[in-house]
Amino acid sequence: MLKTRDEFRNELEEKLHQKLTLSHPLFSLLLDENSADKELLKRVSLQGYQLTKHFLTYIEHLFFYCPMEKHKRRLLFNMFEEETGRLSRTKNHVELMQDFIKALGISNQERDAAVALPATQELIDFRMEACTNTDRYHIGAAAVLIASEGQNLETLGEEARHTILGRVFGLKESDMLFFSVHQKEDVGHVQQGLDLVADLCTTEKMQQEALESVNHTCNLFYGMYQGIYDTIETEEPSYA
After folding, report:
1. Domain 5-230 belongs to what topology?
2. Residue ranges per domain, the chain?
3. What are 31-55's pLDDT values in tens digits?
4. Residue 201 in contact with residue 207, Cβ under 8 Å?
5. Are strands 159-160 and 155-156 parallel, antiparallel or unpaired?
């Protein structure tokens, strides 16, 4: 049955918060203040970088194909911040991620040589296909503006995960700007995404597809972390 606009918007938001990636056991290892496994953090960060490199492309397509002027203007501000960092008074968001990676001791050569694991690539491809296909615009908007932007809002207790990471690994506040900027801005971006998708989906089929997109994207994020976790599990033990 077709839901009212507000009912559907609420259901989208509920769907987002049902799938918390912080529950993945990988984060238990990463956020353990007694271990500080920097090699694991490097591995996770290089996979995260694969996502960051493509994010502006998603927003560009969502802006270009957006059929509603009100939402198109909002996407323009989102795109402007991603590209310039002017609104947050920082810098281009890919550069912010590069600064974080550099703070971990990863060279530019190692960073640029890293490739997406299969599960990471699946997440990249799903969002790219949906964002570049006008028939699936509502699916791409749900995947990027709700499920993806919403990943930065997760907390452990009262603390954001990047705050805990910074403390565990002794990183400076300036090293963590990529995450702190996104945590602040993505509150608004998710709300804008909820508004856009709620306005877009005027049929029962579209509403169901958007809900499935949020669910599937969150599952793909979880799968990405599982893919990284599996590389730990399958490593050969070393002997002194």
Report:
1. Heme Oxygenase; Chain A (1.20.910)
2. 5-230
3. 888 888 999 999 999 999 999 999 9
4. yes
5. antiparallel
Contacts 24+ apart (CB under 8 A), 69-75: 71/192, 71/195, 71/196, 71/199, 74/192, 74/196, 75/192
Q: Is 173 exposed, middle or buried (0-12, 13-18, 19+ CB in 10 A)?
A: exposed
pLDDT in tens, 99-131: 999 999 999 999 999 999 999 999 999 999 999
The residue with tokens 């281009």 is 92
How far is Cα 123 from Cα 222, in angstroms, rounded to an integer? 10
In 35-181 the beta strands, taken as DSSP E runs, fall at 155-156, 159-160
Alpha-carbon 93 to chain mean position? 12
Q: How far is CA 21 from CA 26, 64, 124, 183, 221, in A?
A: 9, 30, 17, 15, 7
Is residue 99 within 8 A of residue 106, CB to CB? The reply is no
Quote the CA–CA distance of 27 and 146 in Å, as a whole number.
22
Maximum pairwise Cα distance, the chain: 64
> What backbone phi and psi angles, to 5 degrees, belong to 160?
-70, 150
What's the pTM value of the predicted model, to 2 decimals? 0.93
User: What gap in Å lies between CA 217 and CA 139, rounded to an integer?
Assistant: 10
Contact in structure between 198 and 8 (CB atoms under 8 Å): yes
Are 156 and 22 in contact by the 8 Å Cβ rule? The answer is yes
Contact 215, 222 (CB under 8 A): no
H/E stretch holding 180 reads: helix 177-200
User: Of 237, 194, 229, whose CA–CA distance to 43 is shortest?
Assistant: 229
